[in-house]
Structures are given as structure tokens and as C-alpha cells.
Structures
1.
Amino acid sequence: MGLISGLILNAFGNGLCISADMGSGLWTASAVNMTKWFGWNTGLLLFIIGVINAITNQFLIKRLDTKRLIGEVLYVMFFSYFVNVFTNLLNFLGVPSLPIFIRIILSCLGVVFFCVAISLYQRANIVMHPNDDTTNILRFLYLKGNSTAAQIIDFIPPIIIIIVAGIAIGQVYSVNIGTIFSFIFNGILIASADKWIWPALKHNFKTKNN
């Protein structure tokens, strides 16, 4: 239940951010800016980033976990599909044409939704998006449970990508109030969701010996 509810809520939150068009998560923004730079498909770039992240996680846990690797790649595929479904639905309902103030609120609400989702499926720890697993690994193996510090470290690569791409193309895309809200509050929202949303769902973090 934690996995399924987290997957659906995560896709809906991201779809809401995309449809509101007032900024989204940094990894999505980095993919959009690379699309403008190289002319590649955004979905393809998100998938490539996800695969690279999944491979990186194998190094972070210091062992080969084939089940984890395959699960994360599959998650990226299904997650992208559901994001498209929700984005198209929200666009059909007229979210992009709403007043800018309402879209700002919806974009920030989308961030809240996907942070709650991350909390749910990170605690379930069956399979998750590779980026979120990176945060989970950093949090418990390297940062003594500090979710805020883990989230900030995970944001460093997409920030670098956005800056480099912005310099190359002379403009930054898909970075707005929602992105700033995500950068500041992601870790705080995830930690708060751990405490207040379904508190009986405890972290099922797997180590080498457990």
C-alpha cells in the first residue's frame, strides 16, 4: 500500500507541477534545460538520468543488488507513464489557463504531494525512483538519518546541470517559484510526512547484513 499510494501520489504531484507550469523539482528542471540544449526528448533524458542514478546507487551501497537495480529502472518507466496521464488530465481540466497566483499555489501543492509520496515509498522501501533511493541511501548510510542534508546533497548534480546548460543556451527553463519551494522544503516536508502521514509505516531500510 505504501508503494502504490506513493507511486500514484508522486506521479500526480509531478503532473500538477508540470501542468501549473510554475516550476517543478530540480531533476525535472535539469532534464528540460538539457532538452533545450541538446534537442533531445525530455522523457528520454529523464529515463537516462534515472538509469545513471540507479547505477550510482549500486556504488553507494557498496555491493551489487540486481533486484534493486532492475526495480528502479522499471519504476522510472512506469512513473513516467503515470506522470503523462495526470499531466494530460490536468491540462484537459484547464489548469494551465488558471490565474498565475492559483498556478503558483498548485505548483507548491504538487511539491507537497510528491514529498509525501517520497516519504511513503521510501519507508515501504520495496522499489522506488532511483533519485529518491539515493536520498534514502545517503540519509541512512552516510548522514545519520538527516533527510534534509541528504536531499540537499542529491540536489547538487541537477543544479550544476541547470547552471551549465543555462550558460550554454543563454537562458534557464523550468525554474520558477515551485522549484525554489521544492529546493527549500523538500527535506523538511519528507521528514514531516514521516512523522505525521501514516506514522505506523516504519522505515524498512535494508543494509548489507539486514
2.
Amino acid sequence: MNAQQARRRRAPAMSPEDRREAIAEAVLPLLAEHGVAVTTSQIAEAAGIAEGTVFRVFKDKQELLGYCVQAALRVEPLLEKLQEIPRTSDLRALLKAVADTLSGHFRRTGALLHALASSGWRPERPSPGEEQEWHRKRLDQTRRITESVAEILSAEADRLRVPPKTVAGMFLGLVFTDEMGRRAFGETAPASTDELIDVFLHGVLAR
């Protein structure tokens, strides 16, 4: 038995939920790279556990993939990064930091979903109740992101024509649309982040 096998066999005791979280965190980069073609041996290798441990907490690979997608879509890590943005009176710098943070999140989740979908993965069809709950959660996540961005902009409220929460909602939609446009059109996407912010602050009419 080599050292790596020994480490796997002596994997520290965890609750099933903690183990699922640890596996998902280790597997997400592999899924973005390989999609559904990722193997159980690669999963175990990344998580530092034996293959059998994977299927003691997930009934099958489909359940593992679904769990990983849900983990990737959580907003808590994004909210933490938004709160780490240094507050400044430079509104453009604030918007640039917010845009970069949001774009990074959208880019990572988009790459994961694209890799899975293009390699043939389809989520299990939810029941009507589950689908309603999913939409409710997504709306709640959007609300929390909007409120976080609004809090960042609140110190500059006296410079804004509309309330910070309105600005935050507009800017969130703009950054999301821009990021999805870049994925769809690649290098033909028309604006850099700086250009996007300039248009957001000053409009499209020549000054």
C-alpha cells in the first residue's frame, strides 16, 4: 500500500453532509474541465479518498453531479467576496470591483454548466413543487446579491439619481447580460468592463 492509498484509507471522519461538501469542492474544477466524462477515480483522487467513499454519501454519479451544480450556484461565497471590496469614494472604482467580482462568479458557474451540458448531462426533472422552490431560491439569491451591491454603493447615495438598490439591480443585470454575451459572441463582444461602466454612468450619447 503506497502513501497515497494510506491517506485515502485514513480519511478523517466526517458527517455525511460535510463529506458531500468536501467532495463537491474538490470535484467542481474537474467538472468544468471534463464535464460528465470525469471518472470516479478522478473524483476520488481530487478529494483524497477511496472511490467507495464517494458512493457512501452519493447514491450514484447523477446525484453527485446535481449536488455539485447546486454547490456552484450558491451565492454565499460571492457575497463574502463582495463584502471584501474596499469602500472608496471613487464610484467608478467601486463599480469596477463589483463588476469583476460578479463576472468571476458568472464565468465560473457558466463554464461549469456549459461543460456539463455539452458533454450530455441533463438534470433530473423536478416535481412541480421542487421547481417552484428552485425558482423561489433563485429569486432570493438575486435579492441578496442586489442588496449586497446596494450596500457597497450606499455611501455614494447622494451622487446617485436613483436609490442605491435600483442602481444595484440595473448594474447586476447589465454585468450578467454582458458576461453571457461574451460567452455567446466571444471576442466580438462589443465592450470592455471599463466601457460598460462608462456607458452605465454616462449613457450612450456623446458628451
